[in-house]
Every structure is written in C-alpha cells, then in structure tokens.
Here is the input.
Amino acid sequence: MEAFERNELRRFVGRELLLWVWFESELFEGTLETKAHGSFGMWLEGRLVMSQGQEATTIKGSQPGNHREAKEALLRGKLPDVAALHLSWNEQDAMFTLKAETLNIAGLKLPRKGGDKTPGDAPGAVASLVRVDGPVKRARPRKRGNTAADVAAFESDEAHEDFYERMTVTREIEGIIEALYRDFLTLRLGPTWDAVIVPALEAWSSGEEVDAEAYAKARAKALGLARSR
Amino acid sequence: MPALRGSLTYARFFVAGDVPEDFREKYMRAIRLRAMKPIEPDDEELERSGWCKVGEPFEIELRYEDVFYNEYVNLGLRTDKWRLPASILKQRLREAEAAYLEKKGRERLGRAEKTELKEVVSRKLRKQTSPATRMIDLSWSMNEGVVRFFSHAEKAGAQMMEIFTKTFGLRLVPEAPYTLAARLGLSKAQESTWEELEMILLEKEEA
Here is the structure.
C-alpha cells in the first residue's frame, strides 16, 4: 500500500477516535483512563461538528454530545469532525478543540498560572489547586543600580521561563491525547473492535443501554489493564 | 498565532533525519542566512518569507539567545507580501496608458508595452505603500523531534516546511492519524489491519 493510501485514505481513524472518546466519556460519566496515565476527566464541551461528505452539523452547548441532534447525526451516517474537549487532570483543567483528520489542536486554553482550576474562571477561585510543578519565578530586579542590559536580560529570562512552563503543560496534554490514541489503536486494530466496541457503539448511538461494567472488563482485558472501574 | 501568550492553535510536524553534533553553530549560521530580508518596492518578488525572532516580526538580526531556549529552537516565520488595491491599480494604469499613448501619438498599446507599463505603475504604487507583514511562530522541540507551527493554514504550513528543510536540511512530516500511529509504533499485524480498515458506519436505514 502506498503512503498516500495509508495516510490520506485513513484519516477517518481520527474521526473514529473522537467518536470513541465521546462514547466512553458518556459511558463512564466523564472519567476516562489510559494505560499510561490512569484516570482523568475528559468530556465534550462547547462545540461538536459532525459531517459526512459535504454535509455538516454543528452542535453547540455545554454538553453537545448529549443533544438528541448529535445521536441523530450519527444514525444518519455522520461522524465527529471537530470536537471541543475539556480535560481535567492532576488538579488542572484545560480546554481545547481537536480536529479529527489532522489531530491538530486549536484554542488550547492552558490552566492559569497561580492555580485557577478552570481556564477563564474568576481569579483565585480554587486556592487549593495551585500548581507546584512549574518553575519558580524570580523576583524582578529593582530598577535602581540595574543597567538596561540587566533589565533586558531579566525580561528575556522571564519570557523563556513562561515559554517552558507553557510547553511543559502543552506536552502533558499532548501526552494524554497520545496515550488515548495508543489505547484506541490497540482496540481499533485488534479483535476487540468488532467483537465489543462496534456493538457497544451501535447500541449507544441508538439509545439502547450499554453494559458499562461488561464493556470496561473487555476493554481492560484488551489493553492489558488491571481493572480499575 | 503566538507561542508565548494566549491560547494555542498549532499543527505538529515530526522531524525526519538526524541533528548534527555541532548543531548550535551550524544552525545559527543557517538561520541567519535565511533570516527575513524585508521586501523592497524595486524587488522582483512580490512575496518573501524568512525567519525572525519568535513573536517579533521586525527583529531580524537574530542572536543566539533569541533562538535557542534550552532544547527548543524558537523562530517566527515572517512573510511580506505586496497587496495593491485593485481599483487604484486599475485607475493609475488607465491614466498611465492614456499619457503614454498621447506622448507617442498612437491609439493602441502593444502587449509588451502594456506589461511594462503595469510593472512601472505597480512599482510606483509600491513605493507609496508598505507590504503586508504576517508572522507565525514556530517551536522545534529537539528532544521530542517535534515542530509546533502555530497555524493550521495549509499554504503557510507548506511554506514553513520548505524553508525549514532549506535551513536545517531535515524533512518534516505533518501529523495525521497514520503518521502519529507510526510514530507511536505499530506491530506488523497492526500495520496489516490498518491497510484493510474501513470507516465505521452507525447509519440506520429508515424503516
């Protein structure tokens, strides 16, 4: 198979990833887990775009996946194309949009410095959630006795420190997405997909009840996890 | 699309190829060679791209500490482009053509004359205005072998890939479901299954 076919003709795998994340976040009430990270919170929040060919449906709301329209779109053959996600891990929260066919991230709102739990919350809302893993900031040098070069050097160091902190959190978030994708691939490319996942997705999209415990057991077995749910 | 502040919108590219041992010296020279040279009205090119300091499109004299942030190489990709308002260009061209014909005592212009006049008028107009400047940040995490390019625009991504390869001699592979899967590692059996994959359809036929 040519690289073009492996890549371009299989971009739908990203849409299936979003579908699976949506399904599991509903089934397990917003608590997902990966082999690498254990449990964390993840759910659809804000916007969900579903499409099939040229036809697209955009659903907005605090829980767009719960809208009747969203499941109806699935039953009309549409799959998620773009989803806004809320991620909650290690007492931090971030929000971002994931584009299925490129796996590109958009509008990633990082946890605020100083520990506000939710990006965009009022300052100081959750004092107990102050991040302790970021670099410690140095105090700005007092102007008197400092040359312009000292101040410039300090500002440059400060810009570097801000950047490292942003990248550390960004890489953590990417690490969680990659771990989810790794687990998804194990399921998607193994016998569990047809035997367990597809019937569960079909039942869920039709509004039928899915046995969360049985699903979790089969999932854990396929991923080689000790059962944690 | 800033790397240093605000929310982050970016595309990832995986770096293919090896970084040389003395990369800091080598890369600094290569970056300076391809640093942005602002476009001038008399230049033949109508668009030009080059490196600048991350977040600072007009800082093009790059110092070592502007570029290397520990294991990261941070740059801005600046593009200057002339954008002349079509209606003004048309009007000025009409005036120039009329003046030329009067001076020559003729009624019509040849194709070559028309082209030349258009170039003269455009250049004059460019001298009265400034090119549009756009900058997109880029951060290359050398330990990870990942470039984060702070835009999703396809054209800008393609331009960046080209100048990145010219500068560093390394190829970039855009992230996609398959390229990420390959990077995470697929077994032979998984590779075979991947090739046979068909998209799930949950569509229900209406009764």
